[in-house]
């Protein structure tokens, strides 16, 4: 039997763009999946030279990230330069399309063919929906959806679920004037699954009625006000609206945790009614750092993007199912409540709102919980600071802690350049003989030196090299801002006229001051390094390699 994905790939090989459009519009397909030959739809269309299909796939959400193997294959397999230029122009990567991971997460809950691709190689299937939608006149039609998605995105479902009886709804019967096609369109819109083709083909009046029934004005706007926009603009507007809906749900139901005594046993009945009606299937417990309390956050495994939490929940769920326990899985997480609150908000909305003094703690938590996609975003928050508070530790951590955290969490490619540039900008404070910063600076250089396990005699210390580079950049940029005539001979102007004494003295003084400051800092830095020798043990041989430098050597410490 030919699957829908195989039929799509066959249409791409033939270059039948109309069949490709129909397959994507009417099937729950992941455009970034691959077939038995490891071809994705985009790679195959690029290889066969079908420009219009490549363009359509890119607009429909196919990824072409040149930093990945699949994206690189799509570019280098292009049959002609026209397709290659199109792929390079889009470069539909995470760094360009910031909403793409959020869209993939929500749409994967609708598409049953998409699994939760773990970042450490574990594949966890997405949980099935927790509520069944049925038509009274068509018993064969039923869709399992997620209650939290329905409540967040539709006023109709929100009112029916929250204002109904106190029992948890398992089935909802929909109005008789709705058709399976219209309900499918509404659900696709809620789950951010590609609705452009269906909306464009649908009748304007029926779309308006559907938007009114389900309380989704954005659905009607997609058919009218966004008619002149391209697919990417429509997608961006729809994603922004979905983020706003889920953010409102998080504010209303998920933000405030249940607080219980540390020795008190948790029970599902303790949750507030609104959260209980969302049918959370996982409870995240964190301990209060100050008092004897435990905070319990209700959540849904469908949005958890932590491999650590997902794996722990899966094992606990097996034990509970053997005992016949159907209550939410309880997982204890060793983070502060404010960090857990930030993580949950990011899980549901892909938005980060945290003060700089908590950014380093969030980075360590993301590394501990195996949330790889969050770490670059937190690094960006840390690396945008340029305050002396980062030098003195008034933020709760210092620049030295940032460097060590980068080494610990594997984010040093992003944090090391920032730390070196920051230290080069404040090298005067780090070289002060009477300050505590000098000792911390020396210790950081030692740790940077010992990070190379198999050190050779010609190896350098990365942190030292980076600081020298950024120190040179610091003074080079300062000199680049000076006028050209300052670097000419002081006995003539650019036009050949001799300068007066005042004009000659000012540039000379500025250049001399800058040069002296640069020389003083470099000599101070070399003096600090010259007090020690870089004696490092090569672990695999047990030998000692003395770091070769152009300064005198002594032992470290």
UniProtKB/TrEMBL annotation:
PANTHER family: ANKYRIN REPEAT AND BTB/POZ DOMAIN-CONTAINING PROTEIN 1, ANKYRIN REPEAT AND BTB_POZ DOMAIN-CONTAINING PROTEIN 1. Coiled coil: none annotated. GO terms for cellular component: cytoplasm; ubiquitin ligase complex. It comes from the Eukaryota. ANK repeats lie at residues 37-69. Residues 491-513 are annotated as: Disordered. Keywords: ANK repeat, Repeat. This is BTB domain-containing protein. Residues 129-191, 280-356 form the BTB domain. InterPro entries: ABTB1 (IPR044515), Ankyrin_rpt (IPR002110), Ankyrin_rpt-contain_sf (IPR036770), BTB/POZ_dom (IPR000210), SKP1/BTB/POZ_sf (IPR011333).
């Amino acid at each position: 039997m030919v699957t829908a994905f195989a039929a799509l790939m066959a249409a791409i090989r033939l270059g039948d763009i109309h069949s490709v459009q129909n397959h994507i519009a009417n099937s729950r397909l992941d455009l970034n999946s691959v077939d038995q030959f490891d071809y994705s739809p985009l790679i195959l269309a690029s290889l066969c030279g079908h420009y219009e299909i490549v363009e359509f796939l890119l607009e429909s959400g196919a990824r072409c990230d040149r930093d990945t193997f699949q994206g690189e294959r799509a570019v280098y397999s292009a049959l002609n330069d026209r397709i290659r230029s199109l792929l390079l122009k889009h470069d539909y990567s995470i760094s360009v399309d910031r909403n793409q991971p959020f869209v993939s997460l929500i749409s994967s809950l609708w598409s049953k063919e998409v699994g939760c691709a773990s970042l450490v190689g574990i594949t966890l299937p997405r949980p099935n929906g927790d509520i069944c939608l049925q038509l009274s006149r068509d018993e064969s039609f039923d869709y399992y959806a997620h209650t939290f998605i329905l409540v967040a995105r539709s006023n109709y479902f929100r009112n029916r679920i929250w204002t109904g009886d106190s029992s948890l709804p398992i089935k909802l019967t929909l109005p008789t004037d709705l058709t399976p096609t219209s309900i499918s369109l509404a659900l696709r819109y809620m789950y951010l699954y590609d609705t452009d083709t269906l909306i464009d083909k649908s009748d304007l009046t029926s779309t308006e009625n559907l938007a009114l029934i389900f309380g989704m004005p954005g659905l009607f706007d997609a058919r009218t006000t966004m008619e002149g926009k391209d697919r990417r603009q429509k997608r961006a507007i729809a994603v922004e609206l979905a983020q706003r809906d889920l953010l409102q749900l998080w504010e209303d139901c998920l933000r405030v945790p249940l607080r219980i005594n540390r020795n008190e046993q948790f029970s599902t009945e303790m949750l507030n009614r609104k959260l209980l009606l969302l049918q959370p299937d996982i409870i995240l417990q964190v301990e209060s750092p100050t008092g004897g309390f435990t905070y319990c956050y209700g959540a849904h495994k469908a949005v958890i993007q932590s491999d650590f939490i997902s794996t722990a929940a899966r094992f606990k769920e097996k034990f509970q199912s053997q005992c016949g326990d159907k209550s939410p899985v309880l997982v204890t997480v060793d983070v502060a409540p404010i960090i857990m609150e930030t993580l949950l908000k990011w899980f549901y909305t892909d938005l980060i709102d945290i003060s700089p003094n908590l950014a380093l703690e969030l980075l360590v938590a993301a590394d501990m919980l195996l949330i790889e996609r969050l770490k670059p975003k937190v690094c960006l928050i840390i690396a945008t600071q340029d305050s002396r508070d980062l030098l003195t530790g008034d933020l709760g951590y210092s620049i030295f802690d940032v460097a060590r955290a980068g080494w610990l969490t594997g984010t040093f490619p992003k944090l090391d350049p920032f730390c070196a540039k920051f230290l080069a900008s404040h090298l005067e404070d780090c070289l002060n003989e009477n300050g505590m910063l000098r000792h911390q600076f020396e210790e950081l250089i030692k740790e940077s030196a010992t990070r190379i396990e198999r050190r050779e005699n010609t190896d350098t210390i990365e942190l030292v090299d980076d600081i020298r580079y950024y120190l040179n950049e610091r003074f080079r940029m300062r000199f680049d801002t000076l006028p050209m005539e300052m670097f000419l001979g002081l006995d003539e102007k650019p036009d050949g006229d001799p300068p007066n004494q005042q004009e000659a003295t000012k540039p000379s003084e500025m250049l001399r001051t800058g040069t002296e400051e640069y020389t003083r800092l470099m000599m101070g830095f070399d003096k600090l390094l010259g007090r020690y020798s870089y004696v490092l043990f090569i672990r695999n041989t047990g030998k000692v390699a003395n770091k070769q430098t152009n300064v005198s050597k002594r032992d470290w410490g």
